Amino acid sequence: MDKNILKNIEEGQLQNRPDVMVGDTVKLHIKIKEGNKERTQIFEGVVISMKGAGVDASITVRKISYGVGVEKILPMHSPVLQKIEIVKRGTVRRAKLYFLRGRIGKRALKVNKIKSIYLTDEVAVPETGEAAEEVNVAETPVVEVPVEESVEVVEEKTEA
What we know:
By secondary structure, the chain is mainly β. It has one helix at about 1-15, and strands at about 25-35, 35-50, 60-65, 70-75, 80-90, 115-120. The protein has a 6-stranded antiparallel β-sheet, with no helix packed on it. The chain starts with a helix and ends in a 40-residue tail after the last strand.
């Protein structure tokens, strides 16, 4: 019975996050509080490890800033972490990329077989008025052009 109560509480804390894997280059949008002001800071780096599951999942991201390695460890479902964007997906053969800590320069963030993709946990919210203007596909007219009346493109050679 206690597990059911904990499970219900945990489900309320889970947030919709993209499928982040070790080796990905990600942008973390982190909410920073300075006095009474709040702002969003972007931290872009390579995911070197992931731990835990469910609400307890955490992510470690590493970047090189002015020649110094900087790592951030954040809970995946923390309210401080506003959004995660996956910029590149890299394939790796390890679960933890701690060996990148000993590397210097461009080699420090080298991951094999990088694919450029873009995933985010942002949900597209329609602006006011867009939801009312939905178009029914069955009602849209379809114009068919006969093959005989189609326009042919002819290339002309010009002499210069």
